[in-house]
Amino acid sequence: MSRPTDTPPDRDQAAAWWRTGIIDMAPDRIRFRGCPVQQLIGRVSFVDMIWFLVVGVMPSPRQARLAEAALVAGVDHGPQAPSIAIARMAMTCGGSLNNALASAVNVLDDVHGGAGEQAMMLFQDIRSRLVDGDDLARATEAGLAHWRRRYGPIIPGFGHRFHRTDPRAPRLMALVAEVAETGEITGQVAAIAGEIERQLAAAKGRRIPMNIDGATAVIFSELGLPPPLGRGLFCLSRSVGILAHAWEQQQQGGRNKGPLPKGWLWQYDGEPPRDCPPV
């Protein structure tokens, strides 16, 4: 007895399997959001193209400048960063550049790489409280209390374990202020971030300055992006440093380099020496 088979899909069904408004591609034709690729090549920057594909419209020159500044600021933070260390270790294990990139990007998660998205979530919550009628101080206080209740005491985007003042953040915030003066962004999120910094300092008795995650979160929020794209764009930015370190490690050579130098051993805190299996 033969098994019944489904009716083979027709061409329209096959074409509708994936739906996208990003690219229209057929033999001898490539269009991004309706624009022929040959009209974009040499006329728009890489940052323009990122924005165009992800957001759906071309950025204004000031929007592109802010987005580019955020991407430039986040490219690298040295081999002590887990993502960079993993990329270099992957190369010493015989990996390829694409393997190193993939391995490194995969660890840009909630703890290492997620603070920008989390800061955007915090800023968004406080901004919603302003819409409901709170003033900036009350909205910020309520937003911080809500964050701590839900996520714990760490406030994303502020403080840094290496830098007393993250050198990237003031420059980014200065650029935000310049664009806000033109009226192209509101500057409201920058004000929220400044109020968070003020309240953290009052609570701690010392300044807890904004870091790069907070500053880039301000930029992406001012530009109207949702929080998940904050992490996605950070992954694009950090991929530049990952690639550079992986390539450098390949040129330097080295085999099977782990997280500790040769001769350094980890702390063992298990069972003391014993006969096994127990007699």
Task: Walk me through the structure.
- It comes from Marinobacter lutaoensis.
- Its EC number is 2.3.3.16.
- It holds the Pfam family Citrate_synt.
- This is citrate synthase (unknown stereospecificity).
- The protein folds into 2 domains: 28-59, no CATH class; 61-256, Orthogonal Bundle (Cytochrome p450-Terp, domain 2).
- It has 279 residues and is mainly alpha-helical.
- The protein has helices spanning 11-15, 37-40, 46-55, 61-73, 82-92, 97-105, 115-131, 136-151, 168-182, 188-204, 212-222, 227-252; strands at 23-26, 29-32, 35-36.
- It is built from 12 helices and 3 strands.
- A 3-stranded antiparallel β-sheet has the order 1-2-3.
- The radius of gyration is 24 Å and the shape is globular.
- The protein is 55% helix and 4% strand.
- A hairpin with a 2-residue loop joins strand 2 and strand 3.
What is this structure, in a nutshell?
It contains twelve helices and three strands; from the N terminus they run αβββααααααααααα. By secondary structure, the protein is mostly helical. Strand 1 and strand 2 (29-32) form a beta hairpin.
Indicate the proportion of strand residues: under 5%
Q: Share of helix among residues? A: 55-70%
CATH topology descriptor of the largest domain? Cytochrome p450-Terp, domain 2
Name of the CATH superfamily of the largest domain: Cytochrome P450-Terp, domain 2
Structural class: mainly alpha
Number of helices: 12
| Number of spatially distinct domains | 2
Q: In the CATH hierarchy, what is the architecture of the largest domain at level 2?
A: Orthogonal Bundle
CATH class of the largest domain: Mainly Alpha
Would you list the SSEs in sequence order as H and E? HEEEHHHHHHHHHHH
Lateral arrangement of strands in the main beta sheet? 1-2-3
Q: How does the major sheet shape up?
A: 3 strands, antiparallel
Our measurement of the CA-to-CA distance between the termini, rounded to an integer number of angstroms, reads: 63 Å
Q: Rounded to an integer, what's the Rg over CA atoms?
A: 24 Å
- What's the rounded overall pLDDT mean? 92
Region (Disordered): 250-279
EC number: 2.3.3.16
InterPro entries: Citrate_synth-like_lrg_a-sub, Citrate_synth-like_sm_a-sub, Citrate_synthase, Citrate_synthase_sf
Enzyme class: transferase
